[in-house]
Every structure is written in structure tokens, then in C-alpha cells.
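Box S1 | Example of a co-folding query
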Amino acid sequence: YSHLQTKRFGREIQYQNHTPSTQIIAHQWAKEDAPEGAVVIADEQGDGKGRLGRVWHSPPRTGIWMSLILRPPIALQSASHLTILTSVGIKRGIERVTGLDIQIKWPNDLLIVGKKVCGVLTEIRGEQDCIHYAIIGIGMNVNTKKQDFPKEILDIATSLTIELGGDIHRATLIAAVLEELEECYERYLQEGFQTIQQEWESSAYKMNQMITVRTPQGNHTGILKGLYDTGALKLQVDQGTIAIYSAEIDIEKY
Ligand code: BT5
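Box S1 (continued) | Returned holo structure for biotinyl-5-AMP
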């Protein structure tokens, strides 16, 4: 990573050939002395984690399975900003390296023509109103071939190589993503959420279209209008606009 142009992100890297989950390693490291920006990367995960106990399939050496440690000086209730700025940074990194067009699907998916190429898992540890640390898990299908995906996700998943027809140098992509993430993170801390929010909205999947979001409280159907400044999703329904928070969301296709 000698060409990495960051100040802190990825300056310390723990690399694993095989691990159950980079999230677990990152949590341990964050509890010890990991500096902000430290990254855990694995070639293979035996027990990759999605949200709400779901599985993240991580076939060996085909993707970027990494966890970034942050120590953001923000309130706990702003934690969803982290997922949003991460999505924007990843989108920029992928687009810079590949030229592909990426859409962002709330709360944590990056899509290429409607199929998931990357998922983000934000895990926070904090108390009272302050965040001790955040682990940002990033799972990106890079050189994954169709036959590497398990049957049940074939219709919903894609990879950069499937879309481009050629393999991609993963270290180059990791460097680009870390650079863009650092830029988004610093801009957010210095200037607030607004420009991140605008960038997110200009790439949102199904912006200004009718969507259905499933939550444990029931389904909400409405027109996707973007984000509130809390990071909640803004849906236009008959009564006006409503806010939907990712903590209560059980994402399904929309
Ligand atoms: C996510 O969860 O999308 C978060 C994924 C985060 C993975 C990274 S890899 C590095 C770090 N270490 C970990 O252990 N995890 C993080 P969620 O929104 O819950 O989506 C999970 C769903 O996506 C599954 O139920 C499948 O339907 C689908 N899925 C699983 N593996 C996939 C893959 N490789 N590509 C596309 N879709 C997948």
C-alpha cells in the first residue's frame, strides 16, 4: 500500500489469511490500543456477519472483507451518519477505479443495476451519549465469479468482475476506498452532515420513486424523498412525510 494517500485510514493494517470475521478482530483491537483508522483485512472469512444475525458470504480471495476502526467525536444518536458517509465513500472509490455506476440503497447496500455489490455493517460501542468506538465492516464482491456465490443470493448479488468482465487489483481498490472514506469522514466532522447527505441523495436507488420498506412495526409504502438530517429515511406518504430509522428496519427487497 505504498501509494496510499491517507493520513490515518489504513496506516495500520492487520492482515489475516483466514478469520471467522474481521469484525471480531477489530472489536478486540479497538478495545486495546488501535488508533483511529486502523483496518483489519482478511482474504477469507469463515463466519462473515451481516446485520441482524444474517450471513455475509465471503468466498476466499475474491473480495474485500475489511473492518475500519473509528473513534468519532459524535453523539450516539448520530451513529447512522457513519453508515451513510461510508456508503458515499465506497461509491466514490469504486467509481474512481472502475468507472461503474453505483447506486446506494438505504440503509447499507451498494448496488450495480439493482444488484448488491457491497454491504456495510456499522457496529458501535458507547455509553451515555458518547461513542467509544465504531467498527465499520465493509464486504465488497470484487473478483467473485457467479459460481462462487451460493444459489440463494445469485439473483440479488453481483461483483465488479461480473459487471466489468476483467479482474481488479484489490489493493488498488482498497487504497482508493480508504482515501475516499477518509475524505468523507473528515468533511463530515468539519462541515457536518449536509454535503454528505446531498451526495447520498444524488446516488440513491429509487430516489423519487415508490418503495416499500419493511419494519417490525409494519410495512411503509411511499415515495423515497431522501434523508432527514438525522440520517433517517424520508418517505412521502398520504399524510405528509415520515421518518424511518434503520435500527427498526428489517430490509427486504425494494
Ligand atoms: C450487510 O448485511 O450487507 C453487511 C455486510 C458486511 C460484511 C462485512 S465483510 C467485513 C466485515 N466482517 C464481517 O463479518 N462482516 C463485515 P445485510 O444488510 O444484513 O445483508 C446480508 C444479506 O445480504 C444476506 O442475508 C444475503 O441475502 C445477502 N448477502 C450475503 N452475502 C452476500 C454477498 N457476498 N454479496 C451480496 N449479497 C450477499
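The CA atoms of residues 48 and 57 lie 6 Å apart. Confidence is low (pLDDT under 50) at residues 248-254.
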